[in-house]
Specification:
mainly alpha; 157 residues; single chain
């Protein structure tokens, strides 16, 4: 009986070894230290793979979701619903009490204006109420803007 168990274990070892590659895939581990309230940096597992910036932005947008909704028809909360914001005139979403800085800005949101605003809201539009929303990381900002732009052009509304 003992010989059969040893033979079975040996055969199993040979089969597992034969099925797998002798090369072990390289595993990278990354520890990211960030300040409280900052979004995690965007890290792509395979640098050679194409980047879906809007998909990365959906993840990065989570830092914004405490104040902003993105779902079609969702009510605004601390901040206005941002679905369809690209192409929208600043301060124009019905039912949201915008600051005078936004309603009087005459800005139509596009990728460039959103980039400037998200980098430094009070610097871009002094008097804005969005004081805690700066996205300092350029890659995160670009991803969030790509995600916002994708909600302006989808047909699921």
């Amino acid at each position: 009986m003992r010989n059969r168990a040893i033979l079975a274990a040996s055969l199993l070892t040979v089969m597992v070894t034969a099925c797998g590659s002798s090369e072990q895939p390289e595993v990278l581990e990354q520890i990211v230290v960030r300040e409280r309230g900052e979004a995690a940096p965007i890290v792509q597992a395979d640098p050679a793979a194409p980047t879906d910036l809007a998909a990365l932005g959906e993840d990065a947008f989570q830092m914004c979701s405490g104040c902003h909704a993105i779902e079609a028809g969702a009510p605004s909360s601390a901040g206005p619903n941002l679905r369809g914001v690209v192409g929208r005139v600043a301060g124009s979403l019905d039912g949201y009490p915008y600051s005078d800085a936004l309603t009087g800005s005459e800005v139509t949101w596009d990728e460039a204006s959103l980039d400037l605003y998200l980098a430094d809201p009070a610097g871009y539009l002094p008097g804005t109420d969005m004081l805690a929303g700066a996205v300092r990381d350029e890659e995160n900002r670009a991803a969030i803007i790509a995600y916002l732009a994708s909600t302006s052009t989808d047909d699921s509304e």
